[in-house]
Amino acid sequence: MLFCMEYPPITPWIDRTRCIGCGECVRQCPTGALMRHEGKAAIFAPDRCTACAVCEEHCPVGAVELPFFIQLSPKFQER
Ligand code: SF4
Ligand code: SF4
C-alpha cells in the first residue's frame, strides 16, 4: 500500500479573542513573520513562517496554536 502525504504551508492560528497584545510572539519570532495589528498579534508574512512554534511556546495566554495538517494527495485519493 502506498501513501503519499503532502504538507501545505503551516502558519500559526492566532485567537484574537484571547490575545492580550503583549507582542511576545512578535518579538520571539525568528523570521519576522508576525506583527502587531490593532493591538493584537497577526500573521504579517506567512511565507516566512518556518512552523518553529516559538510563538506558540512564548504566548502567555495560549492564544497561538500551530495546526498540524496531513492531506492525502488527490492523485492517490482517486484510487
Ligand atoms: S511558527 Fe516560528 S516562524 Fe512561524 S510565526 Fe511562529 S515563531 Fe514565527
Ligand atoms: S504572545 Fe500571545 S498574547 Fe502576546 S501578542 Fe502574541 S498572541 Fe497575543
Could you give a short description of this structure?
With 79 residues, this protein is α+β, with helices and mostly antiparallel strands. The protein has a single domain, classed as Alpha-Beta Plaits, CATH 3.30.70. The chain is built from three helices and six strands, in the order ββαββαββα.
Can you tell me about this structure?
This protein is an alpha+beta fold and 79 residues long. It has a single domain, classed as Alpha-Beta Plaits, CATH 3.30.70.20. The chain is 18% helix and 20% strand. The protein has a two-stranded antiparallel sheet. The protein is globular. It starts with a strand and ends with a helix. The mean pLDDT is 85. The site of one iron/sulfur cluster has 12 residues, from helix 2.
At the third CATH level, what is the topology name? Alpha-Beta Plaits
Q: In CATH terms, what is the architecture?
A: 2-Layer Sandwich
Whole-number average pLDDT? 85
Helical fraction equals 10-25%
The residue ranges in which pLDDT falls below 50 over 5 or more consecutive positions are none
Number of separate helices = 3
What's the number of structural domains?
A: 1
Q: Looking across the biggest beta sheet, what order are the strands in?
A: 1-6
CATH class, anyone? Alpha Beta
- Beta percentage is 15-25%
Shape field = globular
Small molecules (ligands, ions, cofactors) in the structure? iron/sulfur cluster
Output the radius of gyration: 15 Å
Separation, N- and C-terminal Cα atoms = 11 Å
